[in-house]
Amino acid sequence: MDYISMCKNFFAATNIPVSLLKDGRSVYSALGEMLSINTVSHWTIYPPRRNPSFQAFSPDIEYGMVEIEGTDYVLVLGPIFSVPVTQQIVRQFMREIVIPLDYREQLTNCLCSIPRISHHQFAGYLAFFHQCLNHKEADLQDFYTEDEIYARSRNERQLNVMMENLENENLHNSYHFELEMYHLIKEGDVAGLKKFLTDSKIILKEGKMAHTPLRHTKNIFIGVATKAGMLGAIPGGMDVEKVYQLIDFYVQECEQLQTIEEITRLQYMMVIDFCQRVGETHMPSGISSEVYQCMNFIRTHTNDSITVDDVAKHVHRSSSYMMKRFKEELGIHIGAFITRCKLEEAKSLLAYSKKSLAEISSYLCFSSQSYFQNVFKRQYGITPMQYRKKVQKTEF
Asked: What's the alpha-carbon Rg for the chain, to the nearest Å?
């Protein structure tokens, strides 16, 4: 059977993306063909306990796979979305399969054109492919029932570990420590958090999260990053999209590190960073709700070429009205606040990314690299490159 031709015909008929892998390598991708680029994903195809199976890599981006029995081919159906495609989903997908930013608009159009289907409908498509390719019927109920032997084995392992930990008094004791830490992040109390982390005398006992110390430390880091965002930053008023981006960034940074000491330093820096950002987003006294909404709108659109009119439209007010309110309450013009937020974002990019000055300038929508450098130096007294060298020498 010509599997590639079948994939092309299915995509043409349904507009649902389909890919074909051979020995783990992509030999056809409907999205890749549409975008005229190589869209080989960097995610791992996990060996399924049944065929066909679901492969969910996030709550909003889902795939399904059908192993073509007796061959080296695997058919991958997706991505499939049961919710509207948002910019957050587009960015997450771009990171997942490493698509350059230049393709963002084109990819957005592609993803938005994919018909939304329910999980049950998706299972039906997988069952259809399974019957066509492997000449076997798949009961849709099988997709939602766990293999009995696997479930029993897992439960036995869990019970044995729990009994062993009780006998050895290897019990978790980090609950109250974590509650206090995430409360301080939620309050944006940087000084209090630093003092708490420095003065804490608790010897934390954490469960075994992996079979090697390095992987264990990385898994702990991922848990702390997620909880710092979900239990601290978001309840503290930080923009949800910004929190998710920050979690993604720190987890990716952690995965690149190769020593426990480096991960520990990064974890300390991360919780302080979350706390500082929450402190910055708390509504100051004397600030109206309209001005505060405008401030948050500007902070979350630093990579867009926004104007005073855009900011005013966000709260359904005129530009002249919001310019007056901004000046009265903050003492600066809206344009100056937009520039300040872009420069703060530039500082983060200089410190924690390898982007060139040209890339940072373009990303933050400055008119030119030279203008960006001049504005940065006027604001902070040093050039962007001098700032980057300075912060990269800092020991955390």
From this structure: 25
Residues 104 and 10: their CA atoms lie apart, in Å, by 25
| pTM summary value | 0.39
Of the candidates 243, 131, 260, the one whose C-alpha atom is nearest the C-alpha of residue 182 is 243
pLDDT tens digits along 312-337? 999 999 999 999 999 998 889 999 99
Q: Is 65 helix (H, G, I), strand (E, B) or coil?
A: strand
* Pairing of the two strands 73-80 and 18-22: antiparallel
Q: Give the residue ranges of DSSP H helices in the chain.
A: 3-14, 30-35, 87-97, 104-112, 119-134, 148-167, 175-187, 190-199, 213-227, 240-256, 260-281, 289-299, 308-314, 319-330, 334-352, 357-363, 369-380, 384-392
Residue 365 — left, alpha, or beta (φ > 0 → left; ψ -120 to 50 → alpha)?
left
**Of 301, 375, 315, 306, whose CA–CA distance to 335 is shortest?**
306
- Asked if 303 contacts 365 with a C-beta cutoff of 8 angstroms, the reply is yes
Structure tokens at 254: 């952690």
Gap between the Cα atoms of 34 and 11, Å rounded: 11
Q: What backbone torsions phi and psi does residue 159 show, to the nearest 5 degrees?
A: -65, -45
Cα 189 from Cα 244, distance rounded (Å): 21
Q: Which residue has the tokens 């940072």?
A: 360
How far apart CA 360 and CA 376 sit, in angstroms, is 12
For residues 379 and 340, the answer to whether their CB atoms sit within 8 Å is: yes
Interacting residues of 230 by C-beta distance below 8 A, sequence separation 6+: 243
Per-residue pLDDT of 76-85, as tens digits, reads 998 888 777 8
- Chain centroid to CA 343: 23
